[in-house]
Amino acid sequence: MKRGGPTQHVDVTPGRYAAVGFVRVPRAPKGNATISLNITLRDEKGENLSTLSTTVPAATCDWTRIAVAGNVPARVKNKLVKNALLLVLVDGFQPDEEVHIDDVAMFRIK
Fold it and tell me: Which of 18, 27, 64, 70 has its CA 20 to 30 A from that of 12?
């Protein structure tokens, strides 16, 4: 896969959220591959409003934690936040290169 990854739609209410996941890269990619963990806030039409994100360079590693956290407001750009798209985005991997993803979760922090 050149660019993409698993997604999950999550209902959200205003507050602080965190997402965490684990990645494993058995062999170093040839190019400048990256792995991102994103929480993309969306309106009732499913349009993207803003994104909380962390990106790491893909390097040979055993299971490594990636995480992102931040505030989810009631409104962004004067539009009501309806839900979030939780996404692990892999970018720049060649067809014969591997990345493993496991135990991705999103939590509301009180």
Answer: 64
pLDDT (0 to 100) of residue 1: 64
Tokens of 47: 């349009």
Asked if residue 76 lies in contact with residue 58, where contact means CB atoms within 8 angstroms, the answer is no
Looking at the domain that runs over 3-109, which CATH code has it been given? Answer: 2.60.120.260
Q: Secondary structure of 14-70 in the HEC alphabet?
A: CEEEEEEEEEEECCCCCCCCEEEEEEEEECCCCCEEEEEEEEEECCCEEEEEEEEEE
Q: CA-CA distance, 87 to 37, in Å (whole number)?
A: 6
CB within 8 Å of 46: residues ≥ 6 apart: none
Q: Where are the domains of the chain?
A: 3-109
Residue 97: phi, psi to the nearest 5?
A: -100, 150
